[in-house]
Amino acid sequence: MHRLAKLFAAGLACLALSGQVHAGEKPVLKAAVLKVGTVNWELDTIKHNGLDTQNGFKLEVAGLAGNPATRIAFQGGEADIVVADWLWVARQRADGHDYVFVPYSKSVGGLMVPKDSEAQTLEDLAGQKIGIAGGPVDKSWLILRAFAEQEYGIDLAAETEQVFGAPPLIFKNALSGETAGAINFWHFGAKMKAKGMRELISVSDAAKALGLNPETPLLGYVFHGEMLKEQPDLVRGFMAASRGAKDILANDPEAFDRIRPLMRAKSDADFEALKAGFVAGIPAPGPVNEEEAERMLEVMARLGGEKLVGSATTLPEGVFVIPEG
């Protein structure tokens, strides 16, 4: 009886496998992303509009609780795609891991202060608390530190008290006035602005003053280099689907209305701010300028050190996937 049960189970497995081969004519791409991340707006748009199947693949999305979990899934081979910044990819390549980067967003935040704050420059925050999402090597914080050093000759880390925490906590503390200023992810910054706070300085403007190009997309989709070598059409198909979704979100007024529940906008002001922020963050088509990326890496390495960039003191070859055409 036990042997019969085994044979029956094996038969079911074979049937299931043959069904998958028959039904799954297109290869599956699995993306591991933050459950509440803004990337879900784009991925959902891809699936809803059939941009995955139109470009030769089927997209599956796993929403996980935090960035470490998404990276573990990716590094363990349980996911084909993860979202990260290219600095992480550069660090991984320098350490011998063959990962490659496809641009997703150039959106960055800024330093927000209460509407009635007397601060007019970063120098005015000396001696006060700044809330920072992401930790001591947060890229926005490092860029603003470099800007303050260049423009005012001050070390923000020494001149202010930093409060590090998760984005929702930094958001809450900023609105309640527990901190004099806050650096948060762009979508939380958009909500803070919608609630009356003002931007003291944007990370984009600070980067520009440092000679960096704010058009360089920081966030992107990360693939295993092996997939790019062995299945280049699959990676290119995803790139086409991503660009198609961006075009829809930028040009179809109803596209954001459909995904509004995913956006967690509690008011129309939040909704409009999030829409504008997402569209403003869409990178221009074409390859990433590696010379400009190299300059950004130099600044990040100087301020963030090995804790941020590891052994990647120069830009490793092959970080960015070059678009066709």
Structural key phrases:
D-Maltodextrin-Binding Protein, domain 2, alpha/beta, five-stranded mixed β-sheet, 325 residues, single chain
Question: How are the elements arranged and paired?
Answer:
Blueprint: H1 2-23, E1 28-34, H2 39-48, H3 51-54, E2 58-64, H4 67-75, E3 81-85, H5 86-94, E4 99-105, E5 110-113, E6 129-133, H6 139-152, H7 156-159, E7 161-165, H8 167-176, E8 181-183, H9 186-194, E9 198-202, H10 203-209, E10 219-224, H11 225-230, H12 232-251, H13 253-263, H14 268-280, H15 290-309
Parallel strand pairs: 1-2, 1-3, 6-7, 6-8
Antiparallel strand pairs: 3-10, 4-10, 5-8, 5-9
Helix pairs in contact: 2-12, 2-13, 6-10, 6-15, 9-14, 12-13
Could you please describe the fold and organization of this structure?
The structure is a single chain. By secondary structure, the chain is of the alpha/beta class. The chain starts with a helix and ends in a 16-residue tail after the last helix. The strands form two sheets. A five-stranded mixed β-sheet has the order 2-1-3-10-4, with helices on both faces. Strands 7-6-8-5-9 form a five-stranded mixed β-sheet, with helices on both faces. It has helices at 2-23, 39-48, 51-54, 67-75, 86-94, 139-152, 156-159, 167-176, 186-194, 203-209, 225-230, 232-251, 253-263, 268-280, 290-309, and strands at residues 28-34, 58-64, 81-85, 99-105, 110-113, 129-133, 161-165, 181-183, 198-202, 219-224.
